[in-house]
Amino acid sequence: MIEEIKPAEGDGVGGSMAKVTIIGAGQTGATTAQWLAEREIADLVLVDIVEDMPQGKSLDLMQAMPVLISDAKILGTNGYEETAGSDIVVITAGVTRKPGMSRDDLMQTNSKIMTHAVQESLKRSPDAILIILTNPLDAMSQLAMKVGQLPRERVIGQAGILDSARMRAFVAMELGVSVQNVNCYVLGGHGDSMVPLVRHSNVAGVPLMDILPAKRLQAIVERTRKGGGEIVSLLKTASASYAPAAALAQMVEAILRDRHLIVPASAYLQGEYGISGIFFGVPVQLGKGGMERIIEYDLNEEELEAVRKSAAHVRKTIEGLPA
Ligand code: APR
């Protein structure tokens, strides 16, 4: 038996730094912890149902900190007691797609996991902001808000940063420019009906449509729509995790640092874009209050039609949530 080394008095997780809990210490949860620990902006608690696994991963991460020069503390657990007093709870727990499955196919199993995770977290962290990753994303965010009886500012789904980053990566590859120069915006549901806003996307300020031939642009849009599926079919037994985790870390950081950062994310709409009563991917502003504002772009008729189509798909998925 290896003797445990106890933290110094008052120096446990959440002692002096903000506290972030990540539920689901799988591929995405653990990678999110890594991105966040490197930034040294919060102490972290990793929760998973697999016995000993979150403890092992957190110990491994703690041992990376001296090399990365971060005093963030990371604790792994199979329960919720240690999550008490978290500022943000990130929920990645759930089952992932296998090749040929859609995100919607995960609904039944992941609804149960989400309900439990939200209830148990809020019991111990009643003021926490929830960031949801589990698929089907828009429906799981809706469920989290309902189960937690939370105001919409406190539940945000991660999808848009990832979808936009996929498009940015493809454009940068195609043109041989830095990803820093590429701005792309993808709205809508997190699925094949997502709406890449080509007209609003640019490279160093020059509209994408003026740089890329229509055919190439169409190919990039299609690859973005199917970006998650492409990775599932390559990995076969897992889905994307590095890019989703990077997106989660960016959201957590924007909230903790009160950046007022505008990014695409899934938020509960109350009339914006002509849509009400569902979570949907839109540009939002993130700061210490969570989702501070929804930004409404001026969309043309064609874009609005794509948004309506995507919203109809999301609404249908959400109607399939257990009552
Ligand atoms: N409580 C805590 N953790 C759970 C629970 C639960 N009730 N149920 C499952 N988990 C854990 C699993 O044990 C696993 O470690 O969630 C983790 C999910 O990790 P991965 O299988 O590696 O999946 P990942 O690639 O990280 O995807 C996370 O994103 O794509 C979505 O819906 C998909 O839920 C998945 C999430």
Please describe what this structure looks like.
It contains ten helices and 14 strands. The termini are far apart. The protein folds into two domains: 18-157, Rossmann fold; 160-319, L-2-Hydroxyisocaproate Dehydrogenase, Chain A, domain 2 (Alpha-Beta Complex), CATH 3.90.110. The mean pLDDT is 94. Strand 4, helix 3 (107-124) and strand 5 form a beta-alpha-beta unit. It has 323 residues and is α/β, with parallel strands linked by helices. 41% of the residues lie in helices and 20% in strands. The strands form four sheets. A six-stranded parallel β-sheet has the order 3-2-1-4-5-6, with helices on both faces. A three-stranded antiparallel β-sheet has the order 7-10-11. Strands 12-13-14 form a three-stranded antiparallel β-sheet. The longest helix is centred in the last third of the chain and has 19 residues, at 301-319. Bound molecules: adenosine-5-diphosphoribose. Adenosine-5-diphosphoribose binds next to helix 1 and helix 3.
List the helices and strands and how they pair.
Layout: E1 18-23, H1 27-39, E2 42-47, H2 53-68, E3 74-77, E4 88-91, H3 107-124, E5 129-132, H4 137-148, E6 155-157, H5 160-175, E7 182-183, E8 186-187, E9 195-196, E10 202-203, E11 206-207, H6 208-211, H7 214-225, H8 227-235, H9 242-256, E12 261-270, E13 276-287, E14 290-294, H10 301-319
Parallel strand pairs: 1-2, 1-4, 2-3, 4-5, 5-6
Antiparallel strand pairs: 7-10, 8-9, 10-11, 12-13, 13-14
Bound molecules: adenosine-5-diphosphoribose (APR).
